[in-house]
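User: I'm curious whether this sequence folds into something compact or stays loose and floppy. Could you predict its structure so I can see for myself?
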Amino acid sequence: MTRTSTLLFTLLAATGLGLAQAPSGERLAYRFDEVKSKVVRVPGGDEERGVRVSAGDPAEAGDVVKTGLFGRTVLAVPDRAARFEVFSSTRVRLAGGEPGVLLVLEKGRLKAAFDAFTGASEARRVAAPGALLAVRGTRYGLEVAGGESVLAVFEGTVEVFPSDGSPIVRVERDQYCVFGPKTPPRKEQMGKTGMSEKSWGSRGSGMTDGRQGTPGEGSQGPAGPGTQGRQGGSGGGRGGH
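Assistant: Here's the prediction. I'll summarize afterward.
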């Protein structure tokens, strides 16, 4: 993929256009591995067809997934060795196939985990308002609120492709980055804020409109692929190329 086409796709991702359908011959399968409280799948984004899901249920590209106030789910994409822990009051849209976006976070918070993968890194991307994220690592958190997005990298590296065409920003382990449609990416060390993988499940970034609050300590969600038995932020994961 050329830089021009990548940036064009970033604009489509940020505005929610052109992502629902995978190319002919390929439709990625999604699976609800864990479900807690109210989680709704909206087939094709048609709100009138929304249905509550249970662990083991399938989903597909173009579906919208919404979690309730106490809801939580873990979505697996087996063909891409990816898992997304979707926390409460969150809305995501599933998008498979070229150019590789697996999921669009429209609001709320999630944690992504990627196992070792032999395919191209372009096949494992996530979109949020203002940027496209290319995976070069195994674990990160993403949050969308107040018109801005916060990316926190717990293991590996994530590349942020801003939708306005400004330079790509590489966010390394133990760094976070704030960005949005009207906010140029800016990154800092997580250690300065108290932000951590351990607190992500309960409080996320602890930010409001890009300003640091006081993250609370909460329980870490299930370990991602290749991380079982390790504490959050302890390292040891392999890059998800």
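Summary: The chain has two helices and 19 strands. The CA atoms of residues 104 and 127 lie 5 Å apart.
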